[in-house]
Specification:
- The protein has about 400 residues and is an alpha/beta fold.
- It has 2 domains: about 220 residues, 3-Layer(aba) Sandwich (Rossmann fold), CATH 3.40.50.300; about 70 residues, Immunoglobulin-like, CATH 2.60.40.790.
- About 40% of the residues lie in helices and about 25% in strands.
- Strands 3-4-2-5-1-6-7-8 form an 8-stranded mixed sheet, sandwiched between helices. Strands 9-10-15-14 form a 4-stranded antiparallel sheet. Strands 11-12-13 form a 3-stranded antiparallel sheet, with helices on one face.
- Helix 9 links the parallel strand 6 and strand 7.
- The longest helix is centred in the middle third of the chain and has 21 residues.
- It is globular, with a radius of gyration of 24 Å.
- The two termini are about 45 Å apart.
Amino acid sequence: MRTLLITGPGGAGRTTVAAATALRAAREGSRTLVLSADRTDSLGAVLGVPTGAAPVEAAPGLTLWRPDAAAHFRDDLVAFQERAATALDLLGAARLAAEEVTPLPGAEELALLRALRDAALSEAYDLLVVDLPPAPQALALLALPEELRRYLRRLLPPERQAARALRPVLGRLAGVPMPAEWLYETAARWDVELAAVEAVLTDRATGVWLVAEPGPAGADAAHTAVLGLALRALRPELLVANRVLPDSARDPWFAGLAAQQRKTLDEWQDTPGVDGVHAVAHLGHEPRGTDDLAALAGPAVAAASPAPVEWPVADRLAEDGVLVWHIPLPGAIREELDLVRRGDELVVSAGPFRRILTLPSALRRCTVAGAALRDGELRIRFTPDPELWPRGM
């Protein structure tokens, strides 16, 4: 199944573009599902069909779904209390009843990720369009599965489960209860679920679209989003310029705004890290209903996403005695880059974004010798550690 992730700065019309794109795909014969986590149901307002916890058909071949974050959070918390009953009783904790549980910040994101996984594994659809939150929140959401898996491995290392037979003995010696089996089972289940979400996000059939209004503010937001996606090894296959005014505007004010938009559009044609640009015309009013969405002529969804972003390791041992890791970071600024080596991990910071990368196996036996930013690409040099590097290589 083809999966399309749509985001952009707040107010740019990403939900409208997602709806128009999905409607076009459905009318062209693709069984299409639009997934949203918006509390205000802006997706339903655009299409004229209220959405909710159960999928609803908005048009032939077009289904809308807005998962109930409160229900998911309530069910997960109640299940956790049941599994942790012994530990909670030991601490004297008062349990929460299901009816008094309200979702905490982040519950919508977790519900959306779970729904994304379930929908991607379904065979009922050909196309999944995901109406993501605004770009800053969307970038944090895309990073969540990898980060949570990293936390789980650090807090509950899988290799420690091999010693579960010793936990009762250790508990008696220490005088305190040791982590119960359910805790490791829960961590393992979460790891599997997060891995499934991560697999969808990194799949070749998954693409990213950025929606922005052409202009200085939209250009800055798109530039920042492209950099954040690049650090996740994602490249937008399309930059959608929304609400583009016609060049024939007679009013001087509108003519000046249209000229500014045209200048931004020309600049976007050469945006590093973006595969294409598509302009969506301004209708002169807020789009509502399938007729308006059809008039927008939403972008067509390609049969396959572009080639994946590659971070190759170049072997220059013979020439310069180094291995070079190439990480594309279009739009990065040298002064806003930072690198920290921690064991087998490399912490990379680019502007407001940060990612902790696990080093490729060959580079774990090396030391960092330097780095440079050239042509929108971070090139990190590694020299072999004589004590760890195999002889004869």
